[in-house]
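retry 2 of 3: previous attempt timed out while embedding pyridoxal-5'-phosphate. Reduced batch size to 1 and resubmitted. Inputs unchanged:
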Amino acid sequence: MSVSHALEADVLRRQDPELADVLLAERERQSTTLQLIAAENFMSPAVLAALGSPLANKYAEGYPGNRHHGGCEVADVAERLAVRRAQALFGAEHANVQAHSGSSAVLAAYAALLRPGDTVLALGLPHGGHLTHGSPANFSGRWFDFVGYGVDPESGLIDHEQVRILARTRRPKAIVCGSISYPRHIDHAFFREVADEAGAYLIADAAHPMGLVAGGAAPSPVPYADIVCATTHKVLRGPRGGMILCGGDLAERVDRAVFPFTQGGAQMHTIAAKAVAFGEAATPAFAAYAHQVVANARALAAALGVEGLAVTTGGTDTHLITADPAPLGVDGRTGRRLLAAAGLVLDCCALPHDARGLRLGTAAVTTQGMGAREMTYIGGLLASVLRGGTDPARAREDVRELAAAFPPHPR
Ligand SMILES: Cc1ncc(COP(=O)(O)O)c(C=O)c1O
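retry 2 succeeded.
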C-alpha cells in the first residue's frame, strides 16, 4: 500500500500520528505550491502502489535466474518485465534497472569502463555538470582525472570546438555528455565523432531528458553512446532511481559494475515501480505529455524573457530553463527565497557568466494538466515577485488558487 493510500486508509494515522502528520504536511505543501524544480514530477497512483507493494520486503541480490537469496521467483518476473520494457522503450540492446539512483548509475558506468586515475572529459560543474562529473566533493573528482569543457559565455551553448581540442590534447578514456541545467538538445553525433577520434568511450548522462526521449520529444543518446545513464524520476515520472542502457558487448561489464561492484541487494519494489513507469511511458498519452512539457517550457521561457529575465540560450528545447534575474534587481539566491515565499518552488543554478541564476522545469506542472496559458501567468507572477511589484504573501494566495485548480495526482 502506498503512503498516500495508507494515509487515506488511516493506517499510519492510527499507528504513528506523529509521522502521519509529517506526510500530510508534505502532501499539503505539494498541492498548494507549484513545483518548478526541473528534476521533480508527480508519480502516478500505479507507480506509487508498486513502490508500496510487498516487493519492498524482498531481498534479491544478483540478477533474475541467478540470485543469492531464495524466494526470488516473483521478483525475477518483475525485474525481467522492467528490463524488457526499458529495452523496448529506448531501443537498447541491454538495460540494467538496478541502479539505486542517477549517481549510482554513473558510478557503475565509470566502474564498467574506467580505472582509478583515468582521464575523463565532462561538462565542468560551473557550466552545468553534475557532481558525478568531477566534483572534488564526489567520488568522481577524487578517483578520476576530470577535465572540464564549458559553454560559450555569450550564447550559453556548449563550446564544441573546445570539446574537440581537449579531446585531442588530453586523450581522455571517456567523454561524458549530459548536464543538470543545459536547456538545449545535446549533439550526440558530434560527441560520438569526437570520442571516436580520441579513442574514448562516450557516456551519456541523460538523467534529465530521458523522459522526453521516451516520449519522442528529444533525440535519443542510445544509438551514439557506449553507455547511457539516466534517472527514472524527473520527466520519466517513475520512482526515484537509476537505469543504465548499453549495447550487448558491454552488458556483462555493466551488470557486474552495478552488482556486486557498487551495490548489494536490488530494491525490488522500486524495480517494479520502474516497470510500471516504463509501461506508462510507452503510451501515446505519455508522448503527448512529453511534447506538452517542452511546449510549456518554451512558453514559460518566452514569458520570462518578455518580463526582462535573461534566459540562457534565449529559450529551451527541453523541460528546463535557466535564467538570470539580475535585470530585475535580484540575484538567483535572493530570487529563490522570494519565490519560495510565494509558493513558487525552484532551484538556483550556476550560470555561464559566473552568476547564480534560477533553474525551472515544467515536468510537474504539466503532469497537473497546465498549459501555455498557465505558463504565461506563472512567468508574469514570478517576475512581479522578483521585481517587488507583488508581495510574496499576496502571490502565495494566487499560487494556492492555481494549484487548487490543477491538483497533482495522486490526490
Ligand atoms: C545529469 C545528472 N546526473 C546524475 C544525477 C544524479 O541523480 P540522483 O540524484 O538520482 O543521484 C542527476 C540528478 O539530478 C543529474 O541531473
